[in-house]
Give the backbone structure.
Amino acid sequence: MSESTTPGKKGNLTGSARKIKDNAADWHNLIQKWERLNDEGSTIATKIVNLGLNKKSNTESDIVMEGGSLAAGEFSENLKQSNQELEEECVKLQDVVDKMANILSKMEKIVLAERGICELESFQYGEKGRTEPLFHTWPTQNFAEVSSKLYESYKQELALKKTILQELAHTSNADLSMVYLSSWLYQPYIEDSGKLLLKSLLLETGHIPL
């Protein structure tokens, strides 16, 4: 089966070129979904921190007022409601992290698929691979390398998200809570270089015109 090697040609791409172009589109879509989840999770995490700090503040003031005007039953009911609301928000944040884990598993499948394409080309053309690029200039190995770099950064970021999820509701230190919130929002393991890699991938495969 012959493969079209020019993205601008009329007609459909086939074989490895088609698969790699589809993978590039999948990368774009998965990262867009991840960013939406990150924004959603940031809102939930902020609420968890506020609830936790308010609970700590109220508990401390109620201890000071012990034997004062606040009835014990009222304090108990307020604490119960606060704990329930905090638990509900933690469940929501867990759901966000679970969805991110699902996205990461799809990213891993792309990496494995592109490694498979490289192995196939090594079998077909020898160790150096095909002589003509599938698209503009990249050898096929470049697609697998870019996918691997993107996957590793999101894998590290997910590990950080899981740590934040575990610690956030149990942190009474306001400064530490702000560090967790900032880390969630700004995603230190997903650098600007990752955005550049994605853009380069989309340019090479013709999703963005040169």
The radius of gyration is 25 Å. Residues 30 and 106 are 8 Å apart (CA to CA).
